[in-house]
Fold this sequence. Notes:
The protein is α/β, with parallel strands linked by helices. The protein folds into 2 domains: about 1-25 and about 155-175; about 30-150, Cupredoxins -  blue copper proteins (Immunoglobulin-like, Sandwich), CATH 2.60.40. Helices cover about 35% and strands about 20% of the residues. The chain has 4 helices and 8 strands; from the N terminus they run αβαβββαββββα. The chain has helices at about 1-25, 50-55, 80-85, 155-175; strands spanning about 30-35, 60, 65-70, 75-80, 95, 100-105, 110-115, 125-130. A 5-stranded mixed beta sheet has the order 2-8-7-4-5. It is elongated, with a radius of gyration of 23 Å. Pfam families: Cu_bind_like (PF02298). Keywords: Cell membrane, Disulfide bond, Glycoprotein, GPI-anchor, Lipoprotein, Membrane, Signal, Transmembrane, Transmembrane helix.
Amino acid sequence: xxxxxxSSTTVLIVFLLTIFCSLHHFSVSSFEFEVGGTHGWxxxxxxxxxxxxxxxxxxxxxxxxTVRFKYRKDSVMEVNETEYKRCNSSHPxxxxxxxxxxxxxxxxxxxxxxxxxxxxxxxxxxMIVKVMSHEEESPSGGGKSSSGPHVxxxxxxxxxxxxxxxxxxxxxxxxx
Length: 176
């Protein structure tokens, strides 16, 4: 009877590991990008007005990623291309002035961000984020380091790991 129990346990463990590996393969990761790194979302120096677009072009954004804007006495707006070029928006798609704004990139294509404070956009406080479609998918971060931390989120993978740990603990307690 003991050998049957150990054999069943081994089969169960192999089965669960296979399921876990499969779930991990299909898990989707998203990243949080901190705009401006340690400096945050501020008016750039006069000689570096393209700092945000340079930063954005060094990263690979995917659907589901988020961009975090940290700032003081400022705001961030997501606008259309025309409003971006004019540095003006009376009807932004997104507006926040809470000092710690998070925007989810929910579709492929360009997203246009500007400061909501008069004169800041003209001084370079604006950015275009290009979100890749699934066809052009490559690892987030593109192998380059951004100016801020990336936070990996994989709820499916974490759930599978917690489930596997629970099952293995249960099996181990019943075998011993």
